[in-house]
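name: query_chain
kind: protein
chains: 1
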Amino acid sequence: MNATVAACQTAIADLDLPANCRTVESRLESLPDRVDLACFPEYALTGFVPDERARKAAIDRDGDTMNRVRAAASNAGCDVLVGFLERAGSRPYNAAAYVTAEGETTVYRKRHLWGDEADVLRTGEERVTVETPLGTAGLLTCYDLNFVADSAALTDRGVDALLIAGAWPATHAANWRLLVRARALDGVRWAVGAGRTGRREVTNAPVVEYAGRSLVARPDGGIRAELDTAERDLVVDLDRAVLERQRDLVGIGD
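structure:
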């Protein structure tokens, strides 16, 4: 099937849930009508700092904020992937919710925590796939890209795309770009990476500059389209025939 995806590259107001929710709503409202799927960065709804404030910022997957996301997805007429801190007792999860235009919600919890995330968050366990306008898609969050075993497991499930919520540090921007391309190539599938841009500058937390660099990688590992660091939407029309030709070329599906 052909589909149009949008990687909505945003800066995030860490610990400011109302501001981030308004950003997601406004960006969805402004997308072209033809968009079938919109992807937002890691922690897009809540932001993140590596201390007790992360727990206080966490939200329920079925709470008011996610209900607003469901309403925004319905109004935009497209599916949405959005990152957030998910409330879970004393230690939240780094989660990403896939919300369909009809309101069905599937949550992935990041399996590979990066750096100081491990000090305050729980580790997810399940690999998650969802049915999307691109076909079956695997969900990943940022540092998950580094783990080839996860990529292989999703390849075994025959996914047609990877949807990646990212917040890659600007100092490692080249690795983000390389890994999104590699994960597209090693599974012969589309890879849609929505990256955070801007800067985290919160009292008593490390300052971080984010890479942005949202991109869509082709099933042959090439770049279909990409952004720099600007806060804007990468809207890309994807042709199912491109995926099928590449799979035929390498003998997948024979």
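note: The radius of gyration is 17 Å.
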